[in-house]
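Hey,
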Amino acid sequence: MRFGKGGGTVLGVEIYRGDTPGFSPSTATRIDIVPGNVNSYWDTTLYFEGDASVEEVDDPQETPFLEREVEANRARLKRLRKQVSRMKSRQVVVSEYEAEFIHTPLQLGVQQYYIIRRITARRPAVSIISAVGGTTGGGGTQQIAWGIVLSSYSAPIGPATAFRKMTDADLLLPPNIGQVGSDTVNLADVTFRWLSVRGADEYALFVSTDRNNLVPGKAYMKTVTFTQDRDGVPIEVRLVNELNRYFNVYQPTTFYWRVGYRNTRDMALPYPDGWVWSVVHSFKTAPSPPTPPRERTRK
């Protein structure tokens, strides 16, 4: 998730997560507080919890900073969840800041939405404070160095879906190199079969003679729409006289293939290639005669 740098002296960013666009930012949905120089957030399936704080600074030459501590202690989870409080939506100004967060594991295959709130430092107006021991004539002015401003909440960012990684066990056909039948594949009639990943509704098969070219624009590509939101369902693509005509090879050749997958309803395509990738498998073709030319129609 990318949310930009923000304006002013940003000390930190609160991150909230929910599975609907209408979720409310609260102590129950605050999953992290990151430093202000961060302009993107990579969510994970890890569990951790922690707290962040900004102390008041009186010296105008010093800039306040965010202190963030993280620990992995599930014992506090139930207690903190009982202390759920909804946050005010308007901008808030405080002298000091302290908050806790609990990063619950990201659920794979489920669309998520995010809300952020920035913690910013700004110089407030001058306040008049009486000098110690004086009442009249001895008063003075003291400028408070910084105030802490909690911004309004952002609009929901998303949806975004995180997926499990497709492993060797998910790529079923053709046999992977080293397995029986992996070195005698008929390029004129090849069946590719793999298992679905929860949350993905579009898949793409990529085939190439160079494993470094298994990306859009450099490899043979075939897309498949899959509407079952389930994990482990076989998906099959049979290519008859497609790969042999596309690659035009007749000697035994090693081919590489992998599957890309994504949720087309997400706000943005997966970074950086537009797909989440499976592992790479390979196979070798058997010698084959040239593809016969198409007969010309006699006039």
